[in-house]
Amino acid sequence: MRKASLLLTAFLAAAPVAGQVPWNPAAPENRQVLPTFNYATVESVLTAIGARFVRRGTADRPALDVTFPNNRRAGIVFGNCERQGAACKAISIQALWNLPVGPAAARVPAAIQAFNRRYAFSRAYLTADGRPALQRYLTADFGFIRGNLAVNLLVFANQEERFAAEVLR
User: What pTM, to 2 d.p., does this model score?
Assistant: First the structure.
């Protein structure tokens, strides 16, 4: 938890996007319980943290294409959904990259293992088709605190930056 807190502090210290009000962790709405994950609940948090998003997927399997304030992109896939995506109990936040070319490609599996040893917040792996990926899975069986979702999203964006720097460069 301490690492996540330090990562969030570092992320929030970065300059906000021009014209954008930075996310306020002390805002009273951050203590609200989101009863479920759906477009409305997740999009409201994405908007609050300054992320841009586009709806993807289907009514039964909603998804979002997200660009975080640091310009890192990810997909959010809703899971264990009822009522055509109106009440989902989980989300998976996922980022994918192309495998580097040349000698760097051979170093990626070991770099992913090292990344996973250093950071427990998200899971790094190679997809079935060999692309480097990063994933965070959250459940809301009994609700989810709005501010905690914001922190998870911001820290994931920071983890993407670290992954690109430490594994892919």
Answer: 0.87
